[in-house]
Known about the structure:
The protein is an alpha+beta fold. Helix content is 30%, strand content 8%. It has helices at residues 35-48, 88-104; strands spanning 63-66, 83-86. It has a two-stranded antiparallel sheet.
Amino acid sequence: MPRIRIAPPRLATADTRRIKAPERRPTVDPFYQSAAWRGLQAYAMRRAGNRCEWPSCPEMAVDVHHIVERRDDPTRELDPSNVQCLCRSHHKQLTIRNAQRRARW
Protein backbone atom coordinates (compact mmCIF):
# COMPACT_ATOMS: atom_id res chain seq x y z
CA MET A 1 0.00 0.00 0.00
CA PRO A 2 1.55 3.37 -1.03
CA ARG A 3 2.04 6.06 1.58
CA ILE A 4 0.24 9.38 1.25
CA ARG A 5 2.68 12.26 1.17
CA ILE A 6 1.87 15.72 2.45
CA ALA A 7 2.78 18.49 0.04
CA PRO A 8 4.99 21.24 1.49
CA PRO A 9 3.36 24.65 2.00
CA ARG A 10 3.64 27.05 -0.92
CA LEU A 11 4.05 30.12 1.30
CA ALA A 12 6.67 30.50 3.95
CA THR A 13 5.25 30.67 7.44
CA ALA A 14 6.46 32.99 10.15
CA ASP A 15 8.21 31.44 13.09
CA THR A 16 6.02 32.75 15.90
CA ARG A 17 8.51 31.66 18.50
CA ARG A 18 10.82 34.51 17.48
CA ILE A 19 8.44 37.18 16.18
CA LYS A 20 6.33 38.87 18.80
CA ALA A 21 3.15 40.70 17.94
CA PRO A 22 3.35 44.43 18.60
CA GLU A 23 1.72 45.47 21.84
CA ARG A 24 -1.53 47.33 21.38
CA ARG A 25 -2.41 49.60 24.21
CA PRO A 26 -5.82 51.21 24.28
CA THR A 27 -5.73 54.97 24.31
CA VAL A 28 -7.24 56.14 27.56
CA ASP A 29 -7.98 59.73 28.39
CA PRO A 30 -5.68 60.64 31.33
CA PHE A 31 -8.67 62.22 33.08
CA TYR A 32 -10.13 58.77 33.71
CA GLN A 33 -6.90 57.68 35.42
CA SER A 34 -6.82 60.71 37.76
CA ALA A 35 -7.32 60.44 41.50
CA ALA A 36 -10.12 63.03 41.33
CA TRP A 37 -12.14 60.90 38.87
CA ARG A 38 -11.47 57.70 40.82
CA GLY A 39 -12.72 59.41 43.98
CA LEU A 40 -15.87 60.67 42.27
CA GLN A 41 -16.45 57.19 40.84
CA ALA A 42 -16.21 55.62 44.29
CA TYR A 43 -18.52 58.28 45.76
CA ALA A 44 -21.12 57.78 43.00
CA MET A 45 -21.06 53.99 43.44
CA ARG A 46 -21.54 54.30 47.21
CA ARG A 47 -24.35 56.82 46.67
CA ALA A 48 -26.14 54.43 44.29
CA GLY A 49 -25.51 51.37 46.45
CA ASN A 50 -23.63 49.81 43.50
CA ARG A 51 -26.95 49.54 41.62
CA CYS A 52 -27.85 50.77 38.15
CA GLU A 53 -29.68 54.09 38.43
CA TRP A 54 -31.75 53.49 35.28
CA PRO A 55 -35.42 53.40 36.32
CA SER A 56 -36.56 49.89 37.33
CA CYS A 57 -33.23 48.22 36.43
CA PRO A 58 -32.23 45.60 39.01
CA GLU A 59 -28.66 45.11 37.70
CA MET A 60 -25.42 46.00 39.45
CA ALA A 61 -23.71 49.17 38.26
CA VAL A 62 -20.34 48.81 36.59
CA ASP A 63 -19.92 52.20 34.85
CA VAL A 64 -20.17 55.80 36.01
CA HIS A 65 -21.67 57.93 33.24
CA HIS A 66 -21.48 61.69 32.69
CA ILE A 67 -25.04 62.94 32.15
CA VAL A 68 -23.74 66.06 30.38
CA GLU A 69 -20.70 64.92 28.43
CA ARG A 70 -17.31 66.36 29.33
CA ARG A 71 -16.81 67.88 25.89
CA ASP A 72 -20.17 69.67 26.12
CA ASP A 73 -19.43 71.24 29.53
CA PRO A 74 -15.93 70.61 30.90
CA THR A 75 -16.71 72.56 34.08
CA ARG A 76 -19.06 69.76 35.21
CA GLU A 77 -16.67 66.84 34.72
CA LEU A 78 -16.21 66.39 38.49
CA ASP A 79 -19.69 67.50 39.55
CA PRO A 80 -21.36 64.71 41.59
CA SER A 81 -24.79 65.75 40.28
CA ASN A 82 -23.58 65.17 36.70
CA VAL A 83 -22.78 61.46 37.05
CA GLN A 84 -24.93 58.38 37.35
CA CYS A 85 -24.10 54.73 37.89
CA LEU A 86 -25.26 52.38 35.16
CA CYS A 87 -25.08 48.71 34.26
CA ARG A 88 -23.08 47.87 31.15
CA SER A 89 -26.11 47.59 28.82
CA HIS A 90 -27.64 50.93 29.83
CA HIS A 91 -24.28 52.70 29.64
CA LYS A 92 -23.80 51.28 26.15
CA GLN A 93 -27.31 52.43 25.13
CA LEU A 94 -26.64 55.99 26.29
CA THR A 95 -23.18 56.08 24.71
CA ILE A 96 -24.59 54.98 21.34
CA ARG A 97 -27.48 57.44 21.59
CA ASN A 98 -25.08 60.30 22.37
CA ALA A 99 -22.81 59.33 19.46
CA GLN A 100 -25.77 59.24 17.08
CA ARG A 101 -27.01 62.61 18.33
CA ARG A 102 -23.54 64.09 17.89
CA ALA A 103 -23.24 62.64 14.34
CA ARG A 104 -26.47 64.41 13.29
CA TRP A 105 -25.07 67.83 14.23
